[in-house]
Design a protein that fits this description.
Blueprint (H helix, E strand, L loop, with lengths): L1 E4 L4 E3 L13 E8 L4 E7 L4 H14 L6 E4 L4 H4 L9 E4 L5 H12 L4 H8 L3 H20 L1
Parallel strand pairs: 5-6
Antiparallel strand pairs: 1-2, 1-3, 3-4
């Protein structure tokens, strides 16, 4: 979640700008685990890829050993950039892949790349990558018949 903070009020912010907030405002980055009643958060004067990487580190440290965090995100540039350093115990959910990107991932798997490594690189759950292969196969079959 993202919040814009000032000395007089707290307001929920939408997709914030990737530059310092004017007027002394700060952005609060937060993640919650309702089941455990735990959270992790930071208050920063900016919202960009660097801030998101710091937030991911903070969340990763708060996740119990052996547990896994799944973050549901919007399509803000700092949520989808390949420059994110996503810890092993976090999956980012919300990234959209074009048909071309899915096909490229399937081709890499067919060439023998590790499903786990590709999943980490693309910030996509392994089960999602596995689901793309049958779809690619059906698409190839339809193309052959056309």
């Amino acid at each position: 979640m993202g919040w814009s903070l000032s000395t007089s009020h707290i307001a929920v912010s939408g997709a914030g700008a990737a530059h310092p907030i004017k007027g002394g405002q700060r952005l609060a980055f937060g993640a919650l685990c309702p089941k455990k009643g735990k959270g992790a958060g930071l208050v920063l004067p900016y919202c960009d890829t660097g801030a998101m990487n710091e937030h991911l580190k903070e969340i990763a440290q708060a996740v119990d050993p052996g547990a896994y965090a799944v973050l549901i995100l919007d399509q803000a540039a700092w949520h989808t950039t390949p420059k994110l350093k996503v810890p092993r115990n976090i999956t980012l959910n919300g990234k959209r892949f074009s048909a071309k990107m899915k096909l490229a991932a399937v081709q890499r798997l067919l060439r023998g790349e590790s499903l786990e490594a590709l999943s980490r690189e693309l910030n996509a759950p392994a089960h999602r990558l596995s689901d793309w292969r049958p779809r690619a196969d059906r698409g190839r079959e339809r193309a052959k018949g056309a």
